[in-house]
């Protein structure tokens, strides 16, 4: 057993020594000169009419930015291109058992791959200077297998869908095709999905779905699409944009809770109105002008319209308050409001009296003296009410108490109306966002 181990160890070190001393500088230089003799402009096929099948794999390193206004995605991509070279082959035993060698891309053939939906540069080879280009190599195996790595940040056009902002998702696609005529290069994908194990997470966007597909059109042209779905991380825009607007919408209703005589009602109404205008300016900078329009944008516009109506109602109630203070109720609208509030108050008081008289009391002995006192009180009360009504009709004016009651009725109606509108909006949007596709 020890003898066998000794033989194996001796064989291993002998072969390692042969590899180290066999792959000399002269032999590798000779192989490199031999491979550089072939023109880099010719396809790596013995028969130039045969297409070159190029396999591609893609890795996303990071998502630098996604601008939904311009619809531009900026990912950092790494591509691995592989193909079989029928020309650049060698017998490794003739060159000191050299099984692989790297050649600069300027001296050998590489496929020209373009991005169909690129914003600026169409090619996936984005080199900033000549030094970067010269330091890029293609690795060849002795059997002709070639492998080339390229990476860089790209600007990709992407479709924008902000319908469910800030819970929106956007479908993007990186479409690659070989920029050759007559199908001399066929691009194929070795993957069904992206490889995200090297991806660095983005604070604003996350990749929720990804897939890879491709098509070959009658061996003439081909295309490979790397599809991905970007989903917004909604925490920041929800806490800093959506929630303040919802709270501001409820605060806008407090205008009708401030007494008119305080003089602060109008300033609060117009301050909140201007705040809504500022928020709309912010939203127009964030969201693009595209279809379909964001539901959040519609919600904000409706709240702006309600804020305008609240400001209008505020100004009108302040005007009525000053008219009532000056006892100027000759106009049709103030007279109508006072009449309606007076009638509503009387109907409420009558209903309350009926409710009090309809209560059940324990049986008791009703004396004649008690009956006479009750009848006298009722008669005196009814006579006082008749005198008040006659005096009101005679003087054609109402008391200060009725003026205040009229303003309170208007405030209650406006508060309830706008609160119902806001609650219906929030309920509808909550259902829509809960069942969004």
UniProtKB/TrEMBL annotation:
Keyword Transmembrane: yes
Keyword Lyase recorded: no
Main location: membrane
One Pfam assignment: Neur_chan_LBD
GO cellular component assignments: membrane
Listed name of the protein: Neurotransmitter-gated ion-channel ligand-binding domain-containing protein
SUPFAM superfamilies recorded: Neurotransmitter-gated ion-channel transmembrane pore, Nicotinic receptor ligand binding domain-like
């Amino acid at each position: 057993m020890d003898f066998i181990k000794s033989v194996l160890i001796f064989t291993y070190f002998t072969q390692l020594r042969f590899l180290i001393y066999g792959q000399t500088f002269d032999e590798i230089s000779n192989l490199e000169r031999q491979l550089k003799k072939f023109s880099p402009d010719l396809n790596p096929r013995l028969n130039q009419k045969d297409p070159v099948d190029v396999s591609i794999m893609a890795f996303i390193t990071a998502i630098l930015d996604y601008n939904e206004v311009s619809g531009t995605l900026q990912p950092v991509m790494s591509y691995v291109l592989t193909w079989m070279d029928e020309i650049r082959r060698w017998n490794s035993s003739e060159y000191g058992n050299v099984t692989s060698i790297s050649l600069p891309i300027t001296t050998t053939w590489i496929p020209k791959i373009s991005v169909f939906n690129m914003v600026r540069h169409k090619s996936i080879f984005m080199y900033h200077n000549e030094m970067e280009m010269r330091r890029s190599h293609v690795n060849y195996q002795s059997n002709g297998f070639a492998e080339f790595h390229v990476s860089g940040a790209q600007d990709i056009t992407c479709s924008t869908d902000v319908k469910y902002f800030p819970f929106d998702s956007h479908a993007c696609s990186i479409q690659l095709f070989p920029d050759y005529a007559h199908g001399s290069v066929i691009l194929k994908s070795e993957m069904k999905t992206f490889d995200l194990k090297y991806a660095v997470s983005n604070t604003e966007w996350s990749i929720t779905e990804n897939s890879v597909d491709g098509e070959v059109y009658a061996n003439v042209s081909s295309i490979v699409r790397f599809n991905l779905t970007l989903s917004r991380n909604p925490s920041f825009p929800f806490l800093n944009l959506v929630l303040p607007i919802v709270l501001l919408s409820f605060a806008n209703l407090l205008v009708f809770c401030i007494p008119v005589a305080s003089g602060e009602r109008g300033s609060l109404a117009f301050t909140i109105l201007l705040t809504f205008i500022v928020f709309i300016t912010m939203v127009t900078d964030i969201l693009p002008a595209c279809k379909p329009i964001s539901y959040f944008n519609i919600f904000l516009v409706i709240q702006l319209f309600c804020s305008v109506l609240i400001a209008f109602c505020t100004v009108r109630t302040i005007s009525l308050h000053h008219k009532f203070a000056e006892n100027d109720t000759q106009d049709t609208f103030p007279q109508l409001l006072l009449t309606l509030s007076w009638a509503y108050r009387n109907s409420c008081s009558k209903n309350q009296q009926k409710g009090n008289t309809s209560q059940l009391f324990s049986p008791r002995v009703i004396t004649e003296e008690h009956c006479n006192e009750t009848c006298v009180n009722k008669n005196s009360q009814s006579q006082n009410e008749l005198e008040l009504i006659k005096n009101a009709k005679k003087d054609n004016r109402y008391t200060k108490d009725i003026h205040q009651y009229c303003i309170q009725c208007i405030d209650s109606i406006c508060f309830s109306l706008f609160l119902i509108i806001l609650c219906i909006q929030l309920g509808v949007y909550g259902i829509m966002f809960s069942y969004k596709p």
